[in-house]
Amino acid sequence: AIIHQTARRVSRYKQVFTMSRFREMSYEEISCELGISVNTVKYHIKSALVILKKELGTFLCIIFAFYPTLL
Questions:
Q1: How far apart are CA 31 and CA 71, in angstroms?
Q2: Alpha-carbon distance 52 to 36, whole Å?
Q3: How confident is the model over 38-68, as pLDDT tens digits?
Q4: Alpha-carbon gap, residue 30 to 39, rounded angstroms
Q5: Any alpha helices (H) in 1-71, and if so which ranges?
């Protein structure tokens, strides 16, 4: 049950993040379309960015290790 809830939450973060970054929708537009508050939209985007940072952190370290000129 906990895994299912976590997966559902992460799925919502992804949905909100995609709407914001790739569909270029405002927080208000996302809020209206999904029926959630603007503060919830902000929270989901912040949470998605935290997950991305964690996931890409290791990847970026490896890239910079092999290609230090990118720094």
A1: 38
A2: 22
A3: 999 999 999 988 888 888 877 777 777 777 7
A4: 11
A5: 2-21, 27-34, 38-66
Tokens 């405002």, residue located: 26
Chain-centroid distance of CA 63 in Å reads 21
CA angle 61, 62, 67 (to 5 degrees): 95
Read off the pTM: 0.74
Q: How far is CA 31 from the centre of its chain?
A: 16
Other CB atoms within 10 Å distance of the CB of residue 68: 8
Cβ(37)–Cβ(5) under 8 Å? Answer: no
